[in-house]
Amino acid sequence: MRFPTALCVVSLALLSAAGARAQIQEGPPSWAYPVNPPNFQRTPDDGTIRHVPDSAAGFTLTQVRDLFAAPDWHPDDHPPMPDIVARGRKPEVFACGVCHRADGPGGPENASLFGLSAEYIIQQTAEFKTGLRTNSVPRVATDLMIKLSKAVTDQELAEAAAYFASIKPRSNIVVVEAEAVPKTQVRDLFLAPLDGAEKEPIGQRIIEIPENVEHFVSRDSRARFIAYVPVGSVQKGRTLATNSDPRVQCGTCHGADLSGTAIAPGLASRSPTYMFRQLYDFKSGARKGANSELMKPVVENLGVDDMIALVAFSASLKQ
After folding, report:
1. 238 Cβ neighbours under 8 A, 6+ residues apart
2. By CB atoms within 10 Å of each CB, which of 84, 186, 242, 244 scores lowest?
3. Is 131 within the bounds of a domain?
4. Per residue in 72-96, pLDDT tens?
5. Are 134 and 142 in contact (CB under 8 A)?
6. Is residue 53 part of a domain?
């Protein structure tokens, strides 16, 4: 029995939408929202002075964990940090440079800030403050940002936003398509490889890990990452993002090369784990705000595999 072509297209679209809804109903994927296990214990500080490559600085583990003192391993990489970035303001306004690092590269657990406009940074902080921006599952990093947003002054926020916006973005991620990936564990809200060389199938996941875990733990702003993605993801994402799929027209707002425009931030070379969460949160309704009305229809019928492909592609682009 043969069906009219139009009917087949409609049927496939309905199946795709149904599949996307089913994936949302299954819940957010744990690899994208890593949560410390109940028995998780942070490594105690033995007083050892930590070092990272190409830096004369040294800090203890306690110092790099201080939420009111951003470790500045490479001061020549950036302009002088404003007080709000370097030290914050006790007791509620943590130093921006602790979580986002001294010049803003962030990590898989939070946003990279360099390359974003000051206006966009201010807008997003306001949306954390008003409750418009949350996550599909509770996250410590988001809770800290919400707490900070309610206490930071307009002047402090303006200084931090102008500082991060002034820094030229750089690529710090290598995207690798793979069928098998290192086995990982959650360590302080990010994925870290287990000791040894044991691997497992990647499945429908992105596994993003630091090239050197200890350097990232030390909050080295030059830390780099490897993002393992399913084979074929980058090309599939390129196809989706370059307007060949009517559901997704990323370049319309974010620019043909996804480097950003006056109305939307750049997507190129940002953490694919972080970017996946944003797509998923727009779709689930956890992230609202100024851009949600534009993003919601875009992601409405995207499945998890589509989202993985899109962020694999965007992360593979160079700044």
Report:
1. 313
2. 244
3. yes
4. 999 999 999 999 999 999 999 999 9
5. yes
6. no
